Amino acid sequence: MDVGTALAGVQVVKGAFLLLTALALTSYKWPVDKPLSDSATCDYIVIGAGTAGSIVANRLSEDPRFTVCVIEAGGDPPLETEIPSLFAYLPKTYMDWNFTSEDDGYTAQYRQQTYLDLPQGKALGGSSSIHHFYHIRGDPKDYDDWATATGDDSWSWQNLIPYFIKSERLEDPYILNSQSSTYHGTNGYMGITRESRDLPLKYLEAFKEMGHKIIENVNAGDTLGFFLPMFTIFGGVRQSSAESFLSPIKNRENLFIMKNTLVTKIVIDENLQATGVECKTSDGTSITILAQKEIIVSAGAFNSPKLLMLSGIGPKEHLESFGISVVSDLPVGENSQDHMAVILVHQLEETNDTLTSDPSQFPVPTFVGFGAINKTQSYPDYVTLNLISRNSPAALMQLCSSVFSLHENICAQIYAAGEGREVLFSVLSLGRPLSRGQVRLQSTNPEDPPKIYTGFLSATLDLQNYVDSILDFVRVTESSYFTGVGAQTIYFDFPNCSSATNIRDYWECYVLHMMDTTFHYSATCPMGTVLDSSLKVVGVNKLRVVDASAMPNLTSGNINAAVVVLAEKAADIIKRSQSCE
Ligand SMILES: Cc1cc2nc3c(=O)[nH]c(=O)nc-3n(C[C@H](O)[C@H](O)[C@H](O)COP(=O)(O)OP(=O)(O)OC[C@H]3O[C@@H](n4cnc5c(N)ncnc54)[C@H](O)[C@@H]3O)c2cc1C
């Protein structure tokens, strides 16, 4: 099979899903569309019903005295978003904003196109309706650094634990009977389960032999080691924020969700107070909705800074270059962070068995590792998500070319490696990269995408840290299991790397060829500079940002759990400020 055939197969399945979507099989689950008329007034307006927006809308509408209006650019998530094994079919569809990175002369230079696809969800649930289910809170240091950046200790790991607990409904007898059960909730809205297949266990032992710990519960604060991850899957169904936080409250009378409606501008009056939003409805009509109390921007790490900038909040020079009057001169869009992925592939034992896929589970057995380069350190430098394939070259091809978009020559080599073999497909990222990107306006047209500069490897130390992390990770080939089955690291044949004279040079070159995103866009409107520690936009009243853009820094590992905890705490802050009025 070649990449073209693999992608054509994916397109056929996507086409079939599109036909199914017309039947609206799952529409009964979601809140009905409640279109608002021009000049309608709500107490709270929430822009975007993604991971964060759905949570904020749920918590604020718990108080029946207040009306909460949610304006979401996308529609209902279709059936295929619910089924865990189908995640590879969700990007590059109408549920995706289909953003791409700018060609910065460095990112993705060795791909067919010199940009990266940056999928982001456009539906109720936002990116949690298309994400990959890993539920990993990150390291305590990540949150303690939030507390330092904001000068507010309530953002520390210890002080956020009650919010993690509040959101969760964990179903895992082993963890719930262990000492770390106190870190988990069993009554929250968001169902959580854990990898239960045995296949990853031999890998955990192999990494243990190399000096890594096997961690029982990475979400309890001790992160350095390898472990079976938790997932936002429950009862075989995706636990998007829409499924978890909106579906159960779809009949609340004070909750108004307007779907397929794009917010184009935040209206800010002469007293620097946010008073409403301009939007374009599904039939193209422009209307204004007014907010009595507050506006909460939860449009995600690319669209939130774009919307602020279109509304006059952002770097003065940049806004003025588009003729936008400056309301508050802030470094919006300047601290963009993401986990750059490097794909590593190991070929293991021969096998004719193919794993039977259970649609209700994460598609393949998986394990995760947090490693440190400096072995005396107590927090991780790198994170690896590891997927196991057995005699399934087509599944590997889908990962390579559809989930990620690597060069077709590389995908062809991965396909060949997977025929009749077990393969370990690993996604390695620095937990806390130093590189920073930027989000900028392309134009003043709200329908144009923003310009996104990933900034990957712009901090030169990151490249060295990737190489050190890879060298630490691939030591596993010396373990008994790997040597026993004659495992091989796949050293791809990159023409540009032929001049590498030593292994470090080769891995440097490798990183440049095998880079992609892990979809953890964040920190573009961070607390500490753009926002204060209660997520209020500096210099503007009645306006907060609550989503991945509000993080001062990335958390190690996948970030959905961090966005959830941020939104839970934000809702509490807003409710408390209400009761003080
Ligand atoms: C492909 C993919 C895989 C991922 N895998 C994982 C994983 O396995 N584990 C993990 O922890 N994290 C994962 N993530 C990351 C995680 O899902 C996101 O970080 C998280 O969902 C971001 O939440 P958010 O609230 O900031 O934004 P989003 O959830 O993206 O929500 C933003 C919402 O705002 C809406 N919106 C935007 N602009 C406007 C506008 N102008 N008007 C109206 N509505 C608007 C959008 O349509 C969207 O619904 C993944 C992400 C992607 C894309």
Secondary structure layout:
Layout: H1 3-21, E1 41-47, H2 51-60, E2 68-71, H3 79-82, E3 99-100, E4 117-118, E5 134-135, H4 140-150, H5 157-167, E6 168-170, H6 173-176, E7 190-194, H7 201-209, E8 225-227, E9 230-231, E10 233-234, E11 237-238, H8 241-246, E12 255-258, E13 262-268, E14 274-280, E15 286-297, H9 300-310, E16 313-314, H10 316-321, E17 328-329, E18 340-350, E19 366-371, E20 382-390, H11 393-403, H12 408-418, E21 421-430, E22 438-440, E23 451-453, H13 460-474, H14 480-484, E24 488-489, H15 503-513, E25 515-517, E26 543-545, H16 560-580
Parallel strand pairs: 1-2, 1-15, 2-12, 6-7, 15-26, 16-17
Antiparallel strand pairs: 3-4, 5-9, 7-9, 8-19, 10-11, 13-14, 14-15, 18-21, 18-24, 18-25, 19-20, 20-21, 22-23
Helix pairs in contact: 1-11, 2-16, 5-16, 11-12, 13-15
Flavin-adenine dinucleotide (FAD) is lined by residues 47-53, 71-74, 91, 119-122, 126-128, 130-134, 262-263, 298-301, 303, 307, 519-520, 547-548, 558-561, 563.
